[in-house]
């Protein structure tokens, strides 16, 4: 399955992916720029805080880079924005787990504190939610392009059932409702 072929360009879910990527990217970009404005050194781990999060120059650089990546994905839109949202969200959650174990150790070069770990978990889940919206579900509706792509035979049967009228037991034709079920005449 090639992700770029799954969603039509003008599909309404495209807005969810774009706005989600843009919003989260903007938040990260602002956080990173505030860190640069405070003239933090790259590997300083003295616990300087910006917006309630411990930071240093390296974390500010990473925040700006990821923020720009999300904004570029929002500009491109579609499946690119969705896939980037999912990947960045997973990386944020993994980063939260890794830094949970690095707090107070020499390997904590990004100067993470517990508040940063919570932020990483929450931001990762938020970004993943924006990326997975409408793509990952146990009960996608049959008109969803992702469901249709994963079930082409059933989607073809549903489309052909909607295109032709249904025949009732009395022999008269009635329009088939969505889903292809035949309703008895009243």
Structure write-up:
The chain has a domain at 13-132. Helix content is 58%, strand content 4%. The chain has 6 helices and 4 strands; from the N terminus they run αββαααααββ. It has helices at residues 13-37, 57-76, 78-102, 114-132, 145-150, 152-163, and strands spanning 49-50, 53-54, 166-167, 173-174. Strands 1-2 form a two-stranded antiparallel ribbon. It starts with 12 loop residues before the first helix and ends in a 12-residue tail after the last strand.
Distance between the termini: 45 Å
The helicity comes to: 55-70%
What composes the largest sheet? 2 strands, antiparallel
* Number of H/I helices: 6
Q: Structural class from helices and strands?
A: mainly alpha
Query: How many strand units?
Result: 4
Task: Give the quaternary arrangement of the chains.
Answer: single chain
Largest sheet: spatial strand order: 1-2
Query: How big a fraction of the residues is strand?
Result: under 5%
Spell out the helices and strands N to C. Answer: HEEHHHHHEE
């Amino acid at each position: 399955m090639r992700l770029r072929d799954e969603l039509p360009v003008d599909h309404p879910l495209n807005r969810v992916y774009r706005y989600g990527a843009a919003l989260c990217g903007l938040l990260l970009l602002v956080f990173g720029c505030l860190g640069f404005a405070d003239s933090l050194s790259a590997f300083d781990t003295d616990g300087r805080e910006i917006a309630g999060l411990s930071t240093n120059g390296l974390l500010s650089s990473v925040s700006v880079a990821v923020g720009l990546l999300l904004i570029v994905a929002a500009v491109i839109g579609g499946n690119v924005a969705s896939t980037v949202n999912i990947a960045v969200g997973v990386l944020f959650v993994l980063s939260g787990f890794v830094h949970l174990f690095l707090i107070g150790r020499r390997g904590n070069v990004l100067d993470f504190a517990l508040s940063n770990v919570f932020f990483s978990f929450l931001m990762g889940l938020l970004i993943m939610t924006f990326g997975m919206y409408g793509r990952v579900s146990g009960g996608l509706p049959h008109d969803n392009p992702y469901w249709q792509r994963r079930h082409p035979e059933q989607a073809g049967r549903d489309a052909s059932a909607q295109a032709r009228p249904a025949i009732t037991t009395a022999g008269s034709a009635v329009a088939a409702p969505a889903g292809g079920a035949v309703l008895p005449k009243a």
